[in-house]
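I need you to check the entry underneath: sequence plus C-alpha coordinates. Let me know what the C-alpha coordinate row says about the fold.

>
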Amino acid sequence: MELAVLKHNGEETGRKVSLSDAVFAIEPNDHAIYLDVKQFLANQRQGTHKSKERAEIAGSTKKIKKQKGTGGARAGSIKSPLFRGGGRVFGPRPRDYSFKLNKKVKQLARKSALTYKAKENNVTVLEDVSFDSIKTKQYVSLLSGLSLSDKKTLLVLPETNKNVYLSSRNLPKARVITVNDVNTYELLHADTLVLCEGSVSKLENLLSK
Protein backbone atom coordinates (compact mmCIF):
# COMPACT_ATOMS: atom_id res chain seq x y z
CA MET A 1 0.00 0.00 0.00
CA GLU A 2 1.44 3.37 -1.03
CA LEU A 3 0.52 6.72 0.47
CA ALA A 4 1.54 10.20 -0.62
CA VAL A 5 3.61 12.21 1.85
CA LEU A 6 1.82 15.47 2.65
CA LYS A 7 3.20 18.88 3.56
CA HIS A 8 1.97 20.73 6.66
CA ASN A 9 -0.54 22.64 4.51
CA GLY A 10 -2.04 19.42 3.11
CA GLU A 11 -0.37 19.57 -0.31
CA GLU A 12 1.55 16.59 -1.66
CA THR A 13 5.35 16.66 -1.50
CA GLY A 14 5.71 14.38 -4.53
CA ARG A 15 7.18 11.61 -2.39
CA LYS A 16 5.41 8.35 -1.56
CA VAL A 17 5.77 5.91 1.31
CA SER A 18 5.10 2.20 0.97
CA LEU A 19 3.39 0.63 3.99
CA SER A 20 4.54 -2.90 4.80
CA ASP A 21 1.91 -5.63 4.33
CA ALA A 22 3.41 -7.42 7.35
CA VAL A 23 2.24 -4.55 9.59
CA PHE A 24 -0.58 -2.75 7.77
CA ALA A 25 -2.25 -5.63 5.88
CA ILE A 26 -2.40 -8.69 8.12
CA GLU A 27 -5.43 -10.78 9.04
CA PRO A 28 -6.75 -8.81 12.06
CA ASN A 29 -7.14 -10.67 15.34
CA ASP A 30 -10.02 -9.15 17.32
CA HIS A 31 -9.33 -11.21 20.46
CA ALA A 32 -5.73 -9.97 20.63
CA ILE A 33 -7.07 -6.41 20.31
CA TYR A 34 -9.54 -7.07 23.14
CA LEU A 35 -6.80 -8.41 25.45
CA ASP A 36 -4.40 -5.55 24.73
CA VAL A 37 -7.05 -2.87 25.27
CA LYS A 38 -8.21 -4.63 28.44
CA GLN A 39 -4.65 -4.65 29.79
CA PHE A 40 -4.10 -0.99 28.84
CA LEU A 41 -7.26 0.12 30.68
CA ALA A 42 -6.51 -2.14 33.67
CA ASN A 43 -3.07 -0.57 34.00
CA GLN A 44 -4.66 2.89 34.21
CA ARG A 45 -6.59 1.94 37.35
CA GLN A 46 -5.04 3.14 40.60
CA GLY A 47 -6.74 0.45 42.65
CA THR A 48 -6.76 2.66 45.76
CA HIS A 49 -10.46 2.16 46.52
CA LYS A 50 -11.22 1.30 50.15
CA SER A 51 -14.24 1.14 52.44
CA LYS A 52 -14.34 0.38 56.15
CA GLU A 53 -15.59 -2.96 57.39
CA ARG A 54 -17.13 -3.44 60.82
CA ALA A 55 -13.77 -4.04 62.50
CA GLU A 56 -12.52 -0.63 61.28
CA ILE A 57 -15.53 1.51 62.25
CA ALA A 58 -15.20 3.83 65.26
CA GLY A 59 -18.03 3.18 67.69
CA SER A 60 -19.09 1.58 70.94
CA THR A 61 -18.89 -2.18 71.40
CA LYS A 62 -21.62 -2.07 74.02
CA LYS A 63 -24.55 -4.39 73.37
CA ILE A 64 -27.23 -1.99 72.18
CA LYS A 65 -30.25 -3.84 73.55
CA LYS A 66 -31.00 -6.94 75.55
CA GLN A 67 -30.82 -10.29 73.83
CA LYS A 68 -34.41 -11.36 74.34
CA GLY A 69 -37.84 -9.90 74.93
CA THR A 70 -37.77 -6.98 72.52
CA GLY A 71 -39.67 -8.67 69.71
CA GLY A 72 -36.93 -7.77 67.24
CA ALA A 73 -33.81 -9.47 66.00
CA ARG A 74 -30.90 -9.73 68.38
CA ALA A 75 -28.18 -7.13 67.91
CA GLY A 76 -24.77 -7.05 69.49
CA SER A 77 -23.00 -4.00 68.01
CA ILE A 78 -23.83 -0.59 66.59
CA LYS A 79 -21.06 -1.24 64.03
CA SER A 80 -23.10 -3.99 62.36
CA PRO A 81 -23.52 -3.56 58.58
CA LEU A 82 -27.28 -3.67 59.16
CA PHE A 83 -27.27 -0.30 60.92
CA ARG A 84 -26.74 3.14 59.45
CA GLY A 85 -23.09 4.14 59.95
CA GLY A 86 -22.04 0.53 60.30
CA GLY A 87 -19.26 -1.18 58.42
CA ARG A 88 -19.65 -2.40 54.85
CA VAL A 89 -19.92 -6.09 54.06
CA PHE A 90 -17.10 -7.29 51.77
CA GLY A 91 -16.24 -3.73 50.71
CA PRO A 92 -13.57 -2.87 48.12
CA ARG A 93 -9.94 -3.12 49.18
CA PRO A 94 -6.77 -1.75 47.53
CA ARG A 95 -5.63 -4.07 44.75
CA ASP A 96 -3.51 -4.20 41.62
CA TYR A 97 -5.56 -4.67 38.44
CA SER A 98 -2.61 -5.13 36.06
CA PHE A 99 -2.01 -8.49 34.41
CA LYS A 100 0.65 -10.01 32.16
CA LEU A 101 0.23 -10.18 28.41
CA ASN A 102 2.71 -11.85 26.08
CA LYS A 103 4.77 -9.54 23.87
CA LYS A 104 3.72 -11.35 20.68
CA VAL A 105 0.03 -10.92 21.53
CA LYS A 106 0.57 -7.18 22.04
CA GLN A 107 2.41 -6.94 18.71
CA LEU A 108 -0.39 -8.82 16.94
CA ALA A 109 -2.98 -6.49 18.50
CA ARG A 110 -1.13 -3.37 17.34
CA LYS A 111 -0.64 -4.71 13.82
CA SER A 112 -4.35 -5.62 13.74
CA ALA A 113 -5.31 -2.07 14.79
CA LEU A 114 -3.00 -0.58 12.15
CA THR A 115 -4.53 -2.90 9.54
CA TYR A 116 -8.04 -1.68 10.40
CA LYS A 117 -6.87 1.95 10.07
CA ALA A 118 -5.27 1.24 6.69
CA LYS A 119 -8.35 -0.64 5.41
CA GLU A 120 -10.58 2.28 6.36
CA ASN A 121 -8.19 4.78 4.69
CA ASN A 122 -7.67 6.53 8.01
CA VAL A 123 -3.87 6.72 7.78
CA THR A 124 -2.14 9.94 6.72
CA VAL A 125 1.61 10.29 6.17
CA LEU A 126 3.02 13.72 6.97
CA GLU A 127 6.48 15.14 6.45
CA ASP A 128 8.39 15.33 9.73
CA VAL A 129 7.05 17.91 12.19
CA SER A 130 9.22 20.19 14.32
CA PHE A 131 8.17 23.39 16.09
CA ASP A 132 10.65 26.06 17.19
CA SER A 133 8.40 27.13 20.06
CA ILE A 134 5.28 26.02 21.92
CA LYS A 135 2.33 27.36 19.89
CA THR A 136 -1.10 25.74 20.05
CA LYS A 137 -2.16 27.97 17.15
CA GLN A 138 0.57 26.42 15.03
CA TYR A 139 -0.68 22.90 15.75
CA VAL A 140 -4.27 23.97 15.00
CA SER A 141 -3.18 25.34 11.61
CA LEU A 142 -1.39 22.04 10.94
CA LEU A 143 -4.61 20.09 11.56
CA SER A 144 -6.57 22.61 9.52
CA GLY A 145 -4.23 22.18 6.57
CA LEU A 146 -4.80 18.41 6.71
CA SER A 147 -8.62 18.91 7.03
CA LEU A 148 -8.56 17.09 10.38
CA SER A 149 -9.72 19.91 12.67
CA ASP A 150 -12.95 18.14 13.68
CA LYS A 151 -11.53 14.64 13.99
CA LYS A 152 -9.76 12.82 16.80
CA THR A 153 -6.17 12.53 15.63
CA LEU A 154 -3.15 10.57 16.81
CA LEU A 155 0.16 12.02 15.59
CA VAL A 156 3.08 9.59 15.83
CA LEU A 157 6.51 11.24 16.00
CA PRO A 158 9.76 9.34 15.27
CA GLU A 159 11.29 10.77 18.46
CA THR A 160 10.32 13.03 21.34
CA ASN A 161 9.62 16.66 20.45
CA LYS A 162 8.56 18.62 23.51
CA ASN A 163 7.36 21.68 21.57
CA VAL A 164 5.01 19.65 19.35
CA TYR A 165 3.67 17.69 22.32
CA LEU A 166 3.01 20.78 24.45
CA SER A 167 1.46 22.62 21.49
CA SER A 168 -1.16 19.86 21.14
CA ARG A 169 -1.87 19.26 24.81
CA ASN A 170 -4.73 21.77 25.14
CA LEU A 171 -6.63 20.33 22.18
CA PRO A 172 -9.15 17.71 23.39
CA LYS A 173 -9.23 15.77 20.12
CA ALA A 174 -5.48 15.81 19.45
CA ARG A 175 -2.94 13.36 20.82
CA VAL A 176 0.80 13.24 20.15
CA ILE A 177 2.99 10.22 20.98
CA THR A 178 6.29 8.72 19.83
CA VAL A 179 6.74 5.43 17.97
CA ASN A 180 7.78 3.67 21.19
CA ASP A 181 4.52 4.70 22.89
CA VAL A 182 2.14 3.38 20.20
CA ASN A 183 -0.59 1.25 21.76
CA THR A 184 -3.73 -0.47 20.53
CA TYR A 185 -6.18 1.58 22.61
CA GLU A 186 -5.05 4.96 21.26
CA LEU A 187 -4.81 3.64 17.69
CA LEU A 188 -8.45 2.58 17.80
CA HIS A 189 -9.62 5.63 19.76
CA ALA A 190 -8.39 8.05 17.09
CA ASP A 191 -10.43 8.71 13.97
CA THR A 192 -7.28 9.35 11.92
CA LEU A 193 -3.73 8.11 12.41
CA VAL A 194 -1.15 10.69 11.30
CA LEU A 195 2.30 9.16 10.81
CA CYS A 196 5.35 11.33 10.36
CA GLU A 197 7.47 10.21 7.41
CA GLY A 198 10.29 9.15 9.72
CA SER A 199 7.92 7.19 11.96
CA VAL A 200 6.82 4.68 9.31
CA SER A 201 10.07 2.69 9.05
CA LYS A 202 10.65 2.86 12.82
CA LEU A 203 7.14 1.58 13.51
CA GLU A 204 7.53 -1.27 11.01
CA ASN A 205 10.89 -2.26 12.52
CA LEU A 206 9.46 -2.17 16.03
CA LEU A 207 6.50 -4.40 15.16
CA SER A 208 8.51 -6.82 13.03
CA LYS A 209 10.90 -7.93 15.78
